[in-house]
């Protein structure tokens, strides 16, 4: 019974009152199991975000608001990205990385190790560098803009 999702009745907001709606399934997910199913991507480069090479190192855990909760497992560096639709939560589950945030033309570096997280503000360009066996979880809003070059704005 523990492996079966629990059943809940969804309540929807309607003119200030909660009303009973459709039945939906809530499913528990194991981040450990999902990450164990990934292939470690050694020597990741920014260009790999565009050629499909990195696909086996990432998995979508669940949809969330206007985006998704995802996990990845890699070493190396990423391209620049930003999320105009909201803040992104980035949590280092294992390994370590440096998150580089771009603000007013200046690069701010934040080192993350297992158990630490950072909230990347909405619309802020950022990337990951010097990642070593990084197991990372992101709560990422869509859309995502990408750039191989240092963004000018």
Given the structure, what is the number of helices?
Answer: 2
Return residue spans where pLDDT drops below 50 for at least 5 consecutive residues.
Answer: 4-19
Largest sheet: 7 strands, mixed
End-to-end distance: 52 Å
The whole-number mean of residue pLDDT values reads 88
Number of strands: 11
Order of helices and strands: EEHEHEEEEEEEE
- Globally, the shape reads globular
* Range of helix content: under 10%
Radius of gyration based on Cα positions: 18 Å
Describe this structure in words.
The chain is mainly beta and 153 residues long. It is 7% helix and 59% strand. The protein is built from two helices and eleven strands. The protein has helices spanning 31-36, 48-51, and strands at 6-14, 17-26, 41-44, 58-64, 67-76, 80-82, 88-103, 106-113, 117-120, 126-141, 145-147. Strands 3, 4, 5, 7, 8, 9 and 10 form a seven-stranded mixed beta sheet that branches. The radius of gyration is 18 Å and the shape is globular. 18% of the residues are buried.
């Amino acid at each position: 019974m523990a492996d079966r999702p629990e059943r809940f009745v969804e309540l929807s907001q309607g003119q200030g009152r909660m009303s009973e709606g459709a039945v939906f399934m809530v499913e528990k997910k194991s981040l450990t199991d999902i990450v164990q199913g990934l292939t470690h991507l050694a020597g990741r480069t920014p260009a790999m975000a565009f050629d499909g090479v990195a696909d086996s190192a990432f998995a979508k855990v669940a949809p969330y608001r206007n985006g998704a909760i995802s996990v990845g497992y890699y070493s190396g560096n990423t391209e620049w990205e930003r999320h105009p639709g909201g803040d992104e939560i980035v949590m280092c589950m294992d390994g370590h990385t440096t998150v580089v945030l771009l603000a007013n033309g200046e690069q701010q570096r934040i080192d993350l190790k297992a158990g630490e997280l950072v909230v990347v503000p909405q619309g802020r360009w950022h990337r990951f560098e010097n990642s070593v066996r990084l197991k990372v979880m992101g709560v990422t809003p869509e859309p995502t803009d990408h750039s191989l070059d240092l963004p000018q704005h």
